[in-house]
Amino acid sequence: MNPYAKLITLTSLALGTTLTISSNHWAMAWTGLEINTIAIIPMISKSHHPRAIEAAVKYFLVQAAASASILFSSLINAWSCGQWDITQLTNPVSCLLLTTAIAMKLGLAPFHFWFPEVLQGSSLTTSLLLSTVMKFPPITILLLTSNSLNPPLLTFMAISSAALGGWMGLNQTQIRKVLAFSSISHLGWMTIIIIYAPKLTLLTFLLYTVMTSAIFLSLNESNTTKLSTLMTSWTKTPTLNATLMLTLLSLAGLPPFAGFLPKWLIIQELTKQELTPTALTIALLSLLSLFFYLRLTYFSSITLPPNSTNQMKHWYINKNTSPLIAVLTSLSTLLLPLSPLILSTI
């Protein structure tokens, strides 16, 4: 991509995100979402591959429909109560339409089908932006309107996302699709607690962003997009592959790592709200996601599968690893001892 075009795109992306998360007016929030959508589309289609163009068209259609639904829900709410403030969402039809539109933007089940296809058609760097930065403005709108949302609908979407994200990620061989279904499953964890503890949702999203950034940057460093490539990537970057294994285990939520912290707090909060069956259901559904995380770690660092590979082993080892990967990996694996400090800040 041309450096000037890249600068304009990244500036527009930062502007749209900042505009949405800092606005209290529906029109300004909608404007920020539209700027974000227009800014990310050139980054999706920059490779000029038919798969990338298809992903850009799918992303544009879904985001345009979701943005139109958000604008329509704000118009209905302003018509009924005369308020354009985001926090003053009182109309029931507007609440239902807004929840559906935000679910489309985030990729929550049952509106999740576009997200794995778009990530598969994008580069690893663009997939990182789609999985983290592009989800922050819709989650901010959900946080601002959390008092007006429908708890049964959000619980249904959250459990469906956790189930489908784990179930559909089991038979994938493309790592970007595996991480897309992982994102859908984590969104289910964020959504299920947003009414009862919005700050906990924000903490979960921030930790998810750190762990996902470490994984995507590590995969981009070794140019790994498939399981078959992951099996031989240890010849290129052995140390990076070992840290990738630890970050994947952290994203799975195993207790020694930082990824266990949000799941532990969410289950604890659901139990306090007397929603023990819901907490038990989503905890059991996370075992599906744990299976394909363990499969990724098995292929990356533990051992090779008992079959031959047609790919040649890489002889060149890249020693110029970005220091950002080391920082993000350390945060992804070692934040659990600092959990009392993190809990005191929220």
From TrEMBL:
This is NADH-ubiquinone oxidoreductase chain 2. Core subunit of the mitochondrial membrane respiratory chain NADH dehydrogenase (Complex I) which catalyzes electron transfer from NADH through the respiratory chain, using ubiquinone as an electron acceptor. Essential for the catalytic activity and assembly of complex I. Keywords: Electron transport, Membrane, Mitochondrion, Mitochondrion inner membrane, NAD, Respiratory chain, Translocase, Transmembrane, Transmembrane helix, Transport, Ubiquinone. InterPro entries: Complex_I_Subunit_2 (IPR050175), NADH_DH_su2_C (IPR010933), NADH_UbQ_OxRdtase_chain2 (IPR003917), ND/Mrp_TM (IPR001750). It is a multi-pass membrane protein. Pfam families: NADH_dehy_S2_C, Proton_antipo_M. The keyword Magnesium does not apply. The gene is ND2. The chain crosses the membrane at residues 56-76, 96-115, 152-171, 178-196, 202-219, 240-261, 281-304, 324-343. It catalyses: a ubiquinone + NADH + 5 H(+)(in) = a ubiquinol + NAD(+) + 4 H(+)(out). Residues 23-286 form the NADH:quinone oxidoreductase/Mrp antiporter transmembrane domain. Its EC number is 7.1.1.2. Residues 290-343 form the NADH dehydrogenase subunit 2 C-terminal domain. Its main location: mitochondrion. It comes from Yungipicus canicapillus (Grey-capped woodpecker).
